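Board notes, transcribed. Complex of a protein with adenosine-5'-diphosphate.
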Amino acid sequence: MKRAIYPGSFDPMTFGHIDMIERSSKIVDELVVGVLNNSAKNSLFSLDERVSMIKEMTSSIPNVTVASFDGLLVDYMKEIDATIIVRGLRAVTDFEYELQIAQTNHVENPDVETIFLTTNLKYSYLSSSVVREFASYGGDISKFVPEQFIERIYAKYNIIK
Ligand code: ADP
């Protein structure tokens, strides 16, 4: 059984993340969306909020579960018996960093493989930080995130629409 993890901050989850989850869940037997509890990063949404937003959007996909983790990804993967890391590649700029991390993880645990899916062209420009930036100025984020998240995102910036 091939259990994979799709790790990230998901702050907030975007259409790009959803596309990645839908596509990668068809390749592996089980996909765990791993929400990173990074205390060094000041996140817009709490860990619990991010986990429940992802659950809302993935509950209909039977082989996808959502969990949070902190510490080293390879250590968490041992805990849950996962051997595959799924990451998205948007542009050349992602590549250098992703390659370095993938190779480091493989050195840490040779059983761990990273697979990369190229971004759906529709979402290649999209990142959580772009969503946060636009939302903070009251910009239109309806093309970036599911409708049910929009109010919650604006509320973080005290914007009522
Ligand atoms: P991180 O904080 O590690 O960058 P993110 O939550 O931003 O985590 O992203 C998690 C994963 O989703 C990464 O592999 C990233 O490349 C991928 N990703 C982010 N945005 C998109 C997108 N628009 N299309 C496809 N993959 C994406």
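The helical segments are 15-24, 47-58, 73-80, 92-108, 128-136, 147-156. Residues 8-10, 14, 16-17, 20, 87-88, 90, 94, 119, 123, 126-128 surround adenosine-5'-diphosphate (CB under 6 Å).
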